[in-house]
Amino acid sequence: MTLTDTIRLITQKKAEDADGYSTVTETAVEVKCDSGKGITRAEFYEAYKAGIQLSAAFELWACDYGGQTFIEHNGKRYKVERAYPIDRDILQLNCSEVTR
Length: 100
Description:
Blueprint: E1 5-16, E2 22-33, H1 41-49, E3 56-61, E4 70-73, E5 76-85, E6 90-97
């Protein structure tokens, strides 16, 4: 694993403002990652059968990930569809692109 790229891990918190409206606050932390890993054909088609279109995979240190559900990379936002350990210290995030 070569950590030559960065991603922003995004945490969303929902709360109510003073008028009672629901608001979402986002905080982001930037971490090093390896974005050169692509989605395998098998992973893509298995996810597609479940209605999910995987478009990117990122590897990072497991200690950097805190369960965030969204990330940003090169100006694009992704939803983390699956996070799984590759070994004791490395985690892979399989993601689908979020269209805004």
